[in-house]
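2024-03-11 09:14:02 DEBUG pipeline.ingest accepted 1 chain
2024-03-11 09:14:02 DEBUG pipeline.ingest length=140
2024-03-11 09:14:03 DEBUG pipeline.predict start
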Amino acid sequence: MTEALDVPERVRDLAAQLAAPTPMRRGSFTERYVKCHKPGCRCAADPAARHGPYYSLTRGVGGQTQSRWLTAEQGEVARRQVAAGQQFRAEVEAYWAACEAWADAQLTAPAAPATGQKRGSRRPSRRRPSARSRRSSGPA
């Protein structure tokens, strides 16, 4: 395991940020204003008169898009949770970058000196004839 003193300060700081529990969500939060397409409704002609806001939370799960409609109160909470999730993702990327820089530094550090010399075996090995040469040496 890595000694605490060997860990760069940047990596320790980012790890501490990641360890702080926060309610968060993946996906996106949207606020929509829509046209109703009813004849005579002013929302068709005037974009400022559209209906809404309607709040939704959208996320991909197992290759499928899932959306959920929210109330205005839920929308404010979900907006903060999605923002916290995006911040967490950015912190994870920063942590990865810091750890990779640390790993690169270890690769470029000078190798430790060898403690002993390589020694060969005491006697040379004898060559043994292969099975193929024994088969081919017989009568044809």
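2024-03-11 09:14:41 DEBUG pipeline.report Helices lie at 9-19, 72-108, 131-136.
2024-03-11 09:14:41 DEBUG pipeline.predict end
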